[in-house]
Inverse folding.
DNA sequence: CGTCAGTTTGACACGAATCAAAGTGAGTGG
DNA sequence: CCACTCACTTTGATTCGTGTCAAACTGACG
């Protein structure tokens, strides 16, 4: 797993004991729900998922996507109740941790505590970028940014080692991420496809030209240094 | 400072030694700039500020606002380079920390390490809420949410102990936060003022009816528990 | 008194939402 | 094997919200 931090020998037994089991989830399953005060914290081992919030009248906003190595439920673990939900985009394998041992983690394994802060700060940077996109980019730019972003994330966690990448989302997901209607999203993605930047198949998106997407969105990509893997 | 965590006796000397000085900034000053790799981490002691990003062509998006108790530059400290800038909305007093002692902080003061994660997770929740707003709320709802949000934050850090609150922002700031043009922002704020929810004066906003704003935005407010004060 | 940043208003243009309808393909049951 | 359904994608017509352009107003400041 390139770019991932190695655990020190002292940390390994703790990580193992902190872990309470594994969880499998099917496509479409809700892993964590808003308002719940779950006893667990998860690491995604494989698969794609997304976090979202909804307004009382049903309008949905996707906040970010989760790939292997990402944490689920840190907010809940640190602050209390979850204020967003998490849903699987593909079959998932999750590693389950005990939330009530957070204090022990910080006390006895400062390296892991730092990693949690690293992950939280990293999520914050992605959200900053998404906010810029929603607030100040046009529909075309937003769509291009989103696909390029997901492509880069997938590459950075070791998916798509060769060249071809298929992102397992529907146009409804794209619409709910970009803050657009599904009809307008379809027309926008069509334009990207006409320009040979992407291809849309069944319920997934194939990335054809990342550089083209990045240029269209005027986006430089994420700077990622080392990355912990809890 | 209601709701703030007390430091343990063991932590106090470290916090004092971690601190290298204080910094004053005037209204409009840039405290941290995108792309810089500053050697410092800051806590805001008093005043209002905001974080923002810009696109190469100048479009600006305000990401969040900073009030006393908030950290500036955590992303830079943990990951490296800053990817956003920070500007003062009022005269500021900042507490300056040495970024290169983060390891020592996590190793010797796990409570403080946890606090950093708490603050990062808390910022993440605010950004989630902003994202929902930009993506799925109408202009009126967004404006109502923003004012109610800033009101609640100000109250939660002990500003506005009586009832009256003046938020030191211009309509341009509101526009750049909500992802709207300045003209439309003006017309939207005018409607809020006509409904007696706010009053706009010179370059600040007086909140008249928080409940009314929250109802309009269909927003419940932030759940805040205890809060660290580094 | 002039300048300048910020606020306000009206007219018009454009991008995105909504409405409507049809096409596609996978999965299901007759 | 063939209808049938259902989720998803596609397209066109129309409406509505927001952006853009233009101009004037206000108050602080030099």
């Amino acid at each position: 797993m390139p770019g991932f931090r190695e655990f020190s020998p002292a940390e390994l037994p703790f990580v193992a004991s902190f872990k309470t089991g594994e969880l499998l989830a099917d496509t479409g399953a809700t892993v964590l729900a808003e308002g719940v005060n779950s006893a667990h914290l998860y690491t995604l081992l494989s698969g794609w998922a997304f976090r979202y919030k909804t307004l009382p009248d049903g309008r949905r906003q996707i906040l970010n996507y989760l790939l292997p190595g990402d944490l689920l439920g840190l907010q809940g673990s640190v602050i209390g109740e979850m204020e967003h939900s998490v849903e699987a985009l593909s079959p998932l394998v999750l590693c389950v941790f005990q939330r009530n041992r957070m204090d022990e983690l910080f006390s006895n394994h400062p390296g892991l505590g730092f990693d949690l802060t690293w992950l939280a700060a990293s999520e914050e940077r992605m959200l900053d970028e998404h906010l810029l996109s929603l607030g100040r980019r046009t529909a075309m730019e937003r769509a291009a940014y989103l696909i390029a972003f997901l492509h880069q994330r997938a590459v950075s966690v070791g998916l798509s080692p060769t060249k071809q990448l298929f992102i397992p989302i529907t146009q409804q997901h794209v619409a709910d991420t970009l803050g657009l209607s599904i009809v307008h999203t379809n027309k926008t993605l069509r334009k990207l496809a006409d320009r040979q930047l992407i291809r849309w198949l069944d319920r997934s998106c194939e990335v054809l030209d990342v550089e083209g997407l990045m240029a269209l969105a005027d986006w430089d990509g994420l700077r990622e240094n080392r990355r912990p893997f809890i």
User: Anything to note?
Assistant: DSSP finds eight helices and eleven strands in chain A. Chain A touches chain B through 51 residues (CB under 8 Å). The mean pLDDT of chain A is 92. Chain A has two domains: 11-113, 126-217.
